[in-house]
Amino acid sequence: xxxxxxxLLESFVFLFMMYPDLAFSHITPNIQQTSYFPxxxxxxxxxxxxxxPSYINNTNNNxxxxxxxxxxxxxxxxxxxFYSTIWGNVLNYMPNYLSNNENGKLIKQYCVYDRYGYxxxxxxxxxxxxxxxxxxxxxxxxxxxxDDGIIYVGWSYGGVLAQELAATxxxxxxxxxxxxxxxxxxxxxxxxQNIVQGVYSFKIxxxxxxxxxxxxxxxxxxPSGYLSESINLDGQLKISNNMVYFGSDFLQSTxxxxxxxxxxxxxxxxxxxxxAKGKTLLGDIPxxxxxxxxxxxxxxxxxxxxxxxxxxxxxxxxxxxSHFVPIGPTFYDIxxxxxxxxxxxxx
Length: 347
Description:
Pfam family, one: Abhydrolase_1
Number of domains: 1
Protein name: AB hydrolase-1 domain-containing protein
Distance between the termini: 69 Å
Number of helices: 11
CATH superfamily: Alpha/Beta hydrolase fold, catalytic domain
Radius of gyration: 20 Å
Organism: Cavenderia fasciculata (Slime mold)
Keywords: Signal
Largest sheet: 8 strands, mixed
Number of strands: 10
Structural class: alpha/beta
CATH architecture: 3-Layer(aba) Sandwich
CATH topology: Rossmann fold
Order of helices and strands: HHEEEEHEHEHEHEHHHEHEH
Shape: globular
InterPro entries: AB_hydrolase_1 (IPR000073), AB_hydrolase_fold (IPR029058), AB_hydrolase_sf (IPR050266)
């Protein structure tokens, strides 16, 4: 016989998985925020945007012909296998930055979203290479009125997607921030080995989750996407994240994405290799590269410096963090990088 306690627990889980408003309820509750679910090719994508009251007040006092006051949207792109919930710390501190910095008043809104099969977005059931993902993303964003003025913040594999969009449709961007981003030199045997191991681990987890044993263990490694009690992040977001973690859609989508990372990097390399002499991948798009200093390979700084050379209008910064900058002690450096990116665009 099913107990009332179990029914209540299942209802609680259902609510967290169905409604992002519950998951984000502790994140700047006084800021107007909306979750959108635009439809494209019969799939919904979850995009959650936070309004900036300072921008509204600022534009009311500006000349309509002043280009510096044109609306900007900051879009946060997570690394594999993370999604909108990973940005909770950054989202919580955005209002303070927006209200106390002149550059912040140029931002109309800031948004997080979930790629296919992650969070509250529909499961696609196949691998989606970077070029297809950014094309689809533009369709989704356009349907909710975001088609220019984007400052694209990409962390880890999210940085590959940011580079892809900047290389193929720079006109919709006002800047790019790469947070400890992957780069084309990741095309090596070590990454291939790690991907194979990752795919195997997620397939095993997907097979044994039906036993229920997975939910009695709190030791899944952070790179797998599980957020343990020790992670410094809002509790509601962690609960929601970990409920999604044990779902087949998430586990299978992670496998699909791992399987396509090498192809996405290969595509990016081909774009770089085909550039005419003297040309850069991102032209003169304002670019800030933020590099984590802890636990990195010996050549990591060199590779990140190469990334900063992808634009003729760039800045390279560092932060005392591990690769997981969004949930690390110096996550505010991401916001500082956004500020620097806006400044580059105003030169």
